[in-house]
Amino acid sequence: MSKRKECVAMLLAGGAGSRLFALTDKNAKPAVPFGGKYRIIDFALSNCVRSGIDTVGVLTQYRPQLLHEYIGAGQPWDLDRICGGVRILPPFSCRAGADWYSGTANAIYQNLDFIEQYDAEYVLILSGDHIYRMDYGKMLERHKQSGAACTIAAIRVPMREASRFGIMTLGEGGEILRFAEKPREPESDIASMGVYVFGREKLTEYLIADAAARRSAHDFGKNIIPAMLRAGEKMAAFLFDGYWRDVGTVRSLWECHMDLLGEDPALLLPRGNDRVLSRSENAAPHYIGKGAVVKNVALTDGCEIYGKVEESVLGTGVTVGAGATVRYSVLMGNNTVGADARVLFTVADAGAEIGEDAAVGDESGEITVLCEGARVEIGESFAEKGGEQ
Q1: Which of 10, 31, 89, 210 has a CA positioned 20 to 30 A from the CA of residue 129?
Q2: Distance in angstroms (rounded) separating the CA atoms of residues 44 and 277
């Protein structure tokens, strides 16, 4: 059986996610729960499957145990293949010059042998911490047609936020003329999504050169892309007009959850054959008790509601007691909100418990975070903010 693959995906999932604070104390950012029944990494993995890419290397590093267990052999995403499929690629130091991944480019460099064993003509590089649905096949076709050495997925962002991203200046044909990583004064609103398609030989060439550069940060946005532009390589942009969100901060994670709500949600997650695939828990249907109030809520199986829940997202197995109020909050799963408690503008990780008559968060609109397994005692008030908003 031939092992050759036209395109291999490399999914960067090793970041610490420090701006998510307590939510990543124990887990890598791609393993953070999302939307009641998913984890963040589900979106990139599902995109690969829907795009016909069946060979995915997942590069892990920071607190990888849960992520490894969650991905397993890849069955939920139909990536349990004898040839290809999903493969976990942690850093290892059994060969000279190898160590912990020191940047996004270095992570790929240390795994060039994984790419080479499939004799892939193209390499798709992804981030494991973004929420979006995308057909990478269309991007690959754009790359082939343009004849570019590298194609970068791009999206328009508000100019006030442009300095947070890698910003591109494009020519009339969509070719990339200039690229600046997080510029103080952006000259355009076209931002990199952190999704790249490279020809394998060209990628290998620049990764080897970058690995030998002592002062390099070994990063695609800071080093590889600028080096290719300086060398005169043809670079193309693939403009994406769908929903995309970098959930790197507590505020952005909360806002992305709020985008699931309403009659016409900004983030629509289809069901059926086009659904986001995940390793879901088996749970009984949710139950809404007599006298309970549920308005504009994304409710997952296994929930029991006896109080009032509005404008919120509840994961599997959440219980809200009688007389309790939950508003503008995200409860990630297996949480208990005691009778007469009040929860406002809060993100509670899995297993966090809120006692009877306790108060978490406030009306300020700033987000309070409860870490995994946290306990707010009976009658206690807690409104510690989640850092960067």
Answers
A1: 210
A2: 10
